[in-house]
Design goal:
CATH class of the largest domain: Alpha Beta
Number of strands: 20
Shape: globular
CATH superfamily of the largest domain: Alpha/Beta hydrolase fold, catalytic domain
Pfam family, one: Esterase
Keywords: Signal
Strand order of the largest sheet: 13-14-16-15-17-18-19-20
InterPro entries: AB_hydrolase_fold, Esterase-like, Ig-like_fold, Ig_E-set, Mycobacterial_A85_antigen
Radius of gyration: 24 Å
CATH architecture of the largest domain: 3-Layer(aba) Sandwich
GO molecular function: acyltransferase activity, transferring groups other than amino-acyl groups
Number of helices: 8
Distance between the termini: 82 Å
Protein name: Esterase
Number of domains: 2
Largest sheet: 8 strands, mixed
Structural class: alpha+beta
CATH topology of the largest domain: Rossmann fold
Length: 371
C-alpha cells in the first residue's frame, strides 16, 4: 500500500514538473494578432506560434475555442474571478491564417476581439500566426492595384451576381493597354471575398509587380455556388449552372467593362479546394475558353482526360506538404511524360489552409501569360 502511494506521489510530482516545464517552454512574448479589432488586446500570438485567448463571459460556465486550435476539442479556457476566460493553445499552430469561433455554454459565437472572415458557410473569427516568409504578402510601400466590386446580370440564375476584380497598378493611367485575366475561385464555405481578405491576392500581385517578377494581369473572383450545398453533400453540387454563369455571363461582362485581352491565350482559371474542382471540370468541358489551368489543393489532371482536347499552355498543381504531395508528384510526372507543360509546388509545413494557397498563388503568378 505504501509502495503504491509512493508511485502515485512520484507520478503526480512528475506530471507537475512536466506541466511546469511545458509552461516554461512557452515564451511570454505574446502580442495582439494583426487581425484584431482596433484597440483589442486579445487574441494574442507569440513567436513560437502559440495563440492565447481571453473572453469576457461572467455568467458562463464553459468557454472553448473551436476545434483546430490546440488539438482535439479545441482549447478550453479557464474562468477568472474577473469574469474573463483565458487560455493558450496546447500546441504550436501552423503559420498563416486560421478561422475559429468560440463556444460559450453550448452556443457558438465569434470572438469580439478580432475581425470576421467568411468561411465554413458563416462569418468566422480569424487569427494570423506570423509566417517566416510573410514578406511576399505584406502590405508595403509600393504602387497598389485596386479591388473593385461589380454586379453583373445573370439571366441563367435570374439575378444579379457579384464579383471582385483586381486591376494592377497603373491600370487607370493607360487607356490603351489591355491585360490578360485570371479567374480565381475560392473554396467550399467561402465566397468571393476570400482571395482578397484571407488570401491577400492583391498584395501578392502588387509586390510581384513592384519586383518586376510577373506580367501584370487582372484577377476576377466570383461566388462559385449556384445551388447551395450543405457540408458533407458536395456530391450534390452541380457544375452546369455555375459553368454557364462563368463562361457565358461573367466573362463577356468582364471583357465588355474592363480592358482585357479577350481571347483564350490570355485567359486562365485557377481555384483552391472546391474552386480547384470547379476549375478542373470547367477547363475540361470548355478548353476553348481557357489556356492555363491551376489546381491549388483541388485535385489533379490525368493525360487520359486531357487527350484529344485543345492543349493547355500551362498546368499548375499544388498542395501543402501535410496534404498528399506524393499524388501531386505522380500526376506531374505522368503529365510531363505525356508532353504537357506542367509545374507542381508543395508548400512546406502547411496543410489545407490559406498559407498553402497564398504560397501557391505566389508561385503561379510569374508563370502565367508568358510567351
Amino acid at each position: 500500500m505504501i509502495s503504491r502511494l509512493k508511485q502515485i506521489l512520484l507520478f503526480s510530482l512528475a506530471a507537475l514538473a512536466g506541466n511546469t516545464c511545458m509552461s516554461q517552454d512557452i515564451k511570454e512574448d505574446f502580442k495582439p494578432s494583426v487581425l484584431n479589432q482596433p484597440g483589442q488586446p486579445y487574441p494574442q500570438v507569440n513567436s513560437q506560434g502559440y495563440a492565447r485567448f481571453r473572453i469576457l463571459a461572467p455568467r458562463a460556465d464553459s468557454v472553448r475555442v473551436s476545434l483546430g486550435l490546440g488539438g482535439k476539442g479545441g482549447t478550453l479556457l479557464t474562468k477568472g474571478e474577473d469574469g474573463f476566460f483565458t487560455g493558450t493553445t496546447a500546441g504550436q499552430m501552423d503559420e498563416g491564417f486560421h478561422y475559429y469561433h468560440v463556444t460559450i455554454d453550448g452556443g457558438v459565437f465569434n470572438d469580439p476581439g478580432t475581425l470576421n472572415f467568411y468561411g465554413s458557410v458563416r462569418w468566422e473569427s480569424g487569427i494570423e500566426i506570423p509566417a517566416h516568409d510573410q514578406d511576399f504578402y505584406a502590405l508595403k510601400d509600393v504602387p497598389h492595384g485596386n479591388v473593385v466590386q461589380v454586379l453583373f446580370p445573370s439571366k441563367s440564375t435570374n439575378t444579379s451576381r457579384r464579383a471582385f476584380v483586381y486591376t494592377p497598378p497603373g491600370y487607370s493611367k493607360d487607356a490603351n493597354k489591355r491585360y490578360p485575366v485570371l479567374y480565381l475561385q475560392h473554396g467550399w464555405g467561402e465566397d468571393e471575398t476570400a482571395w482578397s481578405n484571407q488570401g491577400h491576392a492583391n498584395l501578392i500581385m502588387d509586390n510581384l509587380i513592384a519586383d518586376a517578377k510577373i506580367k501584370p494581369f487582372i484577377i476576377v473572383m466570383t461566388y462559385g455556388i449556384t445551388n447551395e450545398v450543405r457540408f458533407g453533400h458536395m456530391r450534390e453540387f452541380k457544375i452546369d449552372t455555375f459553368q454557364t454563369v462563368l463562361t457565358e455571363e461573367l466573362i463577356p461582362y468582364i471583357d465588355a467593362h474592363f480592358r482585357t485581352l479577350a481571347n483564350r491565350e490570355n485567359r486562365a482559371m485557377a481555384g483552391l479546394s472546391m474552386g480547384g474542382m470547379e476549375t478542373h471540370t470547367i477547363t475540361l468541358n470548355r478548353p476553348e475558353v481557357f489556356s492555363q489551368y491551376a489546381l491549388l489543393s483541388g485535385g489533379l489532371y490525368t493525360p487520359e482526360e486531357l487527350k484529344d482536347k485543345t492543349k493547355p499552355k500551362l498546368i499548375f498543381i499544388s498542395c501543402g506538404s501535410r496534404e498528399n504531395p506524393d499524388r501531386v508528384k505522380q500526376a506531374t510526372d505522368a503529365l510531363k511524360q505525356a508532353g504537357y507543360n506542367v509545374v507542381s509546388f508543395v508548400s512546406e509545413n502547411t496543410a489545407h489552409e490559406f498559407l498553402t494557397w497564398r504560397r501557391s498563388l505566389y508561385q503561379l503568378a510569374p508563370l502565367l501569360f508568358q510567351n
